[in-house]
Structure to design on (154 residues):
């Protein structure tokens, strides 16, 4: 896929779902990103394939745009990106993905994950106790009997 095809698909997926200026900001960002990577020696097709499917990127942008913080993050990122001094940071920031808990299924997944971890911990502790109980209980009984016998001798 070429840069032009990638940007067209991205624009088609975003159009009508977020405001026009936000769509244009995203198109400009990805256009500049692809150009920057091409200048660093990668082929256009290689860069586009690394980015992945424009549909997935659009869904990520749409999910993040629901979060008000996205606009603030994007604005501050634009200021850093245009400074020119931070090209290395630009490359690192371009690979950062924002994962928020802004939808019900992500919150449910987090809760189920926490419950799963708690169940595993309880299971491991219970397993250890069930393995050690047949050994530890007789040892304690023997120690108790020895103390009783020793205390009667005195």
């Amino acid at each position: 896929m070429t840069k032009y095809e990638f940007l067209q698909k991205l624009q088609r997926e975003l159009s009508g779902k977020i405001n026009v200026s936000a769509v244009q900001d995203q198109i400009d960002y990805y256009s500049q990103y692809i150009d920057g990577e091409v200048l660093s020696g990668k082929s256009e097709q290689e860069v586009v394939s690394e980015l992945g499917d424009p549909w997935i990127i659009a869904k990520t942008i749409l999910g993040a745009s629901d979060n008000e913080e996205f606009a603030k993050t994007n604005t501050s990122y634009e200021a850093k990106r245009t400074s020119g001094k931070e090209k290395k940071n630009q490359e690192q920031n371009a690979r950062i993905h924002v994962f928020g808990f802004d939808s019900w299924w992500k919150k449910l997944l987090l809760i189920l994950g926490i419950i799963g971890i708690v169940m595993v911990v309880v299971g491991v502790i219970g397993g250890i106790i069930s393995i050690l109980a047949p050994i530890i209980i007789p040892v304690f009984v023997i120690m108790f009997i020895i103390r009783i016998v020793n205390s009667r001798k005195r």
Observations:
- The chain has two domains: 3-99, 103-154.
- Residues 3-99 form one domain.
- The mean pLDDT is 82.
- Residues 104-153 form the longest helix (50 residues).
